[in-house]
Design brief:
Helix content is about 30%, strand content about 25%. With about 675 residues, it is an alpha/beta fold. The two termini are about 35 Å apart.
C-alpha cells in the first residue's frame, strides 16, 4: 500500500477512553466503517495510555485492558475491510509512576517545579526536549509498527508542554546551541532565538520518529497533528516529513465562525502544496471552549462541516471521543456525508480544483474573512496562494490576485506582483497592502504604489460615520441604484492618484448631536482607485478597511463593492457562473475532458451564528459553464440524473430545479 496517502480518502477515527477495553463493541465500529464507506481509520494505540499489551516499562497500560487487545482487534478488522490503518499516540502527559522514576522527562516551570496536568491532577506534563520524546516515545512507536500492520503513526499533542519548559534538557540544549539562558517570559529577552531553536528541535523529533517508522515499514510514515494550523505555517524542515498528506485538526466551528471555514482549510493547504492531499478532522460533538467532547453536535452542523470541507478538497475524517456511544444522533449525518463523498469521488478524483481568482493568504485575519465572505456570497470561485510560496509561475495560473490586507510584503514579493501585472494579470488590493516590509517596518510609500496608481498622502486614521460617494459612471458603481453614497470604512488612508476614482470619501462630519449629522463638504479624496493597464490587466485599490468592516458589520454594500471590484478586474465573463437565491459555496474542478461544478448549500436560519440546525433546500439555480465543444454530456452526480444540455455560444446552460446540501454538475466532453 505504498500509495496509501492518496487512496485513503475517508477516515474514521476512534479516540478511546481508558475504560473502553472493558466494554467497547468492535463489531459496531467495523459496521460503521462499512456503512460510511470509510477506507481508512485512525485508532488509539499508545502514549499516555496503551491500548495493546505493551512490553515497555512505564508505558502505561489501560487498567481495564486485562488480556484484551482492542487496538489489535480494530487493526485486524479494518485490514479485513481493505482499509488503510493509522495508529494514534499522545505523548503530552505521563502517569505518576513514570514521573517518579524519570523526573527528567517532565516539563518544569521557571522555578524548576514539575508541571501537573491542568485538567487532570495526578498526571504530569512532558517536555518535548527531554529523552521522553526523543528516546522513550521512539521506542513506543517502534513497538507499535513492529507488532501491528499499520501504514502510519499519527501523534496528537506531540509538542509536549506548550509553554516554555525549563527542564534541564531544554536549558542545556538552548544554552549549548544559542549561548543563552531560556527566556523568562514570552516575547522577553531571547524570545526570537527561542522560537527558532524550539522549531528546529521539534523538526528533528519529527524526523527521528518518521525514520523509526520507515526503518520497520518502508512504505509507512509518521504524521504529526498540525492542530488548526495549515501547511503555510510549516517550515520546510517540518513539511518534508509530512509530505504524503496534511491533517488539519479544525474539528468544527462555534459562535460566529462561518460555515465555509471547513472549505477554507482545504484552500489554505492547497495554497502551499497544491498537489498533496489534506484531511480535515471533524468532531461528532460541538467545538466549544467548554470542551463537551463526549457529546453530539446538531445533525446539519456535522454534515455541513464535512461536506463543505471535501467540496473544497479537504477530505473527510470524523472522530469520536470514547468508543461507547451514549447518543447515536451523530451516526446518520456522518454516514450520509461520507456516502455523498463516495458518490462524487469517482468523478472529482480525476479532476483538479481550479479558479480564475486567487486570494493571497497572509496568515488569516478579519480582512481576509470579509473578502472570503463577500466572494462566497457573490458565488465567485477562488483559490488561495500562500505568501510563503508566491512565485510568478504560481500567480500566472490566475487572472486576478486579491490582497485583502497584505500589509507585509518584501521588495521581492512586490517585484513578483509587479511582474504579474506587467504580464497582463489583474490585482485587487485593500487598505495597508504593501505599506510594510516583511519585517514589519513601515515604508515611506506603498511598495506597490506604482502598480496600483497611488501614492501615500496621509497615514491610516480611525474614523466614525464615514461615507463614500458614487462619482462618474463605472462598473464598480453597479447595483447601487437609488444611492448617491454608501458606508465607507472605520480606518481610512489618504492617497493621491491620477487614476479613475469611481468612489470618493466624503469629508468628516459629526455623528452627534443629531442636529449636526449632515454633510458639509463635497467628496474629495479617492475611496476606490481603478486602473487599466497596457498589458490588459486591471487594478483596484481600496484605501480603507473594507474587508474587516464587512466582516464586522456585514453591510451588503461592502460585499457588493468587493464583488464588483473582482468582477471588473477579471475583465471577462467568468468560465463558470452559478446564479440563484441562497448562500452557496462553489468549487470548480477541471480536466482535459470535463468540468465539474460543486456547490454546497449553506442556506440555513443560523448561517452566521451557529450551530446549523436546518439546511433550507435551494430554489432553482442557473449554471453556465464554458466548454470547447457542443458535444457534451451533463449529469447531476448527487441527484443521479442526466440533464439534456443546452449549448449556446460556447457555454452549457442548465437549470437545477432544487438541491439539498450538495450538488455537483459534471460536464463531460470526452467523446467529442
Amino acid at each position: 500500500m505504498d500509495n496509501w496517502a492518496r487512496t485513503a480518502t475517508r477516515w474514521a477515527q476512534i479516540t478511546l477512553a481508558e475504560d473502553d477495553p472493558a466494554h467497547f463493541d468492535a463489531d459496531l465500529w467495523l459496521q460503521l466503517m462499512r456503512d460510511s464507506k470509510s477506507n481508512a481509520t485512525c485508532i488509539s494505540a499508545g502514549g499516555y495510555v496503551a491500548y495493546y499489551p505493551t512490553q515497555l516499562e512505564y508505558h502505561y497500560r489501560s487498567k481495564f485492558l486485562a488480556d484484551t487487545d482492542p487496538f489489535g482487534t480494530l487493526v485486524e478488522g479494518a485490514r479485513s475491510l481493505g482499509m488503510t490503518v493509522m495508529a494514534r499516540v499522545d505523548p503530552h502527559a505521563i502517569h505518576a509512576d513514570a514521573a517518579e522514576a524519570h523526573p527528567e522527562w517532565l516539563a518544569r516551570d521557571r522555578g524548576g517545579n514539575p508541571i501537573e496536568h491542568w485538567a487532570y491532577p495526578g498526571v504530569w506534563l512532558t517536555c518535548a526536549l527531554t529523552p521522553y520524546h526523543r528516546e522513550f516515545l521512539t521506542e513506543v512507536i517502534r513497538e507499535i509498527v513492529r507488532e501491528y500492520d499499520v501504514d502510519a503513526v499519527f501523534a496528537n499533542r506531540w509538542e509536549g508542554y506548550g509553554g516554555i519548559s525549563y527542564s534541564e534538557a531544554a536549558r542545556k540544549s538552548f544554552r549549548d546551541e544559542c549561548g543563552l539562558e531560556l527566556p523568562l517570559e514570552e516575547h522577553g529577552d531571547g524570545w526570537p532565538e527561542y522560537v527558532s531553536w524550539r522549531h528546529r528541535r521539534l523538526g528533528e523529533l519529527v524526523g527521528i520518529w518518521d525514520q523509526a517508522v520507515r526503518d520497520l515499514r518502508p512504505h509507512a510514515r509518521f504524521v504529526p497533528n498540525l492542530g488548526a494550523l495549515a501547511a503555510r505555517d510549516l517550515a520546510g524542515d517540518l513539511a518534508e516529513p509530512v509530505s504524503p498528506l496534511f491533517i488539519v485538526d479544525k474539528q468544527g466551528r462555534h459562535g460566529i465562525e462561518a460555515p465555509w471555514g471547513a472549505g477554507r482549510a482545504g484552500k489554505r493547504n492547497r495554497g502551499v502544496y497544491p498537489d498533496r492531499p489534506v484531511q480535515l478532522i471533524t468532531s461528532v460533538g460541538p467545538e466549544h471552549q467548554y470542551r463537551w467532547k463526549d457529546s453530539v453536535a446538531p445533525v446539519e452542523e456535522t454534515k455541513t462541516w464535512i461536506v463543505d470541507g471535501f467540496a473544497q478538497g479537504a477530505l473527510p475524517w470524523f472522530t469520536k471521543f470514547n468508543a461507547t456511544i451514549q447518543d447515536d444522533r451523530w451516526v446518520e449525518p456522518v454516514v450520509e456525508a461520507f456516502n455523498l463523498h463516495a458518490t462524487v469521488e469517482p468523478v472529482l478524483r480525476d479532476l483538479r480544483i481550479t479558479a480564475e481568482i486567487a486570494l493571497l493568504d497572509s496568515g488569516g485575519n478579519d480582512h481576509e474573512d470579509g473578502f472570503y465572505q463577500a466572494l462566497v456570497e457573490a458565488r465567485i470561485p477562488f483559490e488561495f496562494v500562500s505568501d510563503k510560496v508566491m512565485t510568478l509561475e504560481r500567480l500566472r495560473a490566475f487572472k486576478v490576485v486579491v490582497l485583502a490586507n497584505a500589509e507585509r510584503l518584501s521588495d521581492e514579493q512586490c517585484a513578483v506582483l509587479r511582474s504579474y501585472v506587467e504580464g497582463g494579470g489583474s490585482l485587487v488590493a485593500a487598505y495597508q497592502s504593501s505599506l510594510y516590509d516583511e519585517n514589519g517596518s513601515k515604508r515611506t510609500d506603498f511598495g506597490l504604489g506604482d502598480v496600483l496608481g497611488i501614492g501615500l498622502a496621509e497615514p491610516s486614521r480611525r474614523v466614525q460615520n464615514n461615507y463614500i460617494a458614487l462619482m462618474d459612471a463605472h462598473p464598480l458603481n453597479a447595483g447601487f441604484d437609488g444611492a448617491t453614497r454608501i458606508i465607507g470604512g472605520t480606518h481610512i488612508i489618504g492617497v493621491a492618484s491620477e487614476e479613475a476614482a469611481p468612489f470618493r470619501f466624503i469629508p468628516d462630519f459629526p455623528d452627534l448631536p443629531m442636529e449636526e449629522v449632515y454633510q458639509r463638504e463635497a467628496p474629495d479624496k479617492p475611496a476606490v482607485v481603478c486602473t487599466e493597464n497596457a498589458a490588459g490587466g486591471r487594478t483596484v485599490y481600496f484605501p480603507f478597511n473594507i474587508g474587516a468592516i464587512f466582516w464586522e458589520a456585514l453591510q451588503a454594500d461592502h460585499g457588493r463593492l468587493i464583488a464588483n471590484a473582482v468582477s471588473w478586474a477579471l475583465g471577462k465573463t467568468p468560465d463558470v457562473t452559478v446564479q440563484g437565491a441562497g448562500l452557496v459555496d462553489v468549487a470548480v474542478y477541471t480536466g482535459d475532458s470535463g468540468t465539474a461544478v460543486a456547490f454546497v448549500n449553506l442556506t440555513n436560519p443560523m448561517a452566521m451564528r451557529g450551530p446549523i440546525r436546518e439546511t433550507l433546500p435551494l430554489p432553482p439555480q442557473s449554471v453556465s459553464i464554458a466548454v470547447p465543444t457542443d458535444r457534451v454530456k451533463v449529469r447531476l452526480l448527487v441527484a443521479g440524473v442526466d440533464v439534456v444540455p443546452n449549448v449556446v455560444d460556447g457555454r452549457v446552460e442548465i437549470v437545477i430545479p432544487t438541491a439539498g446540501l450538495l450538488e455537483v454538475v459534471h460536464v463531460d466532453w470526452s467523446e467529442a
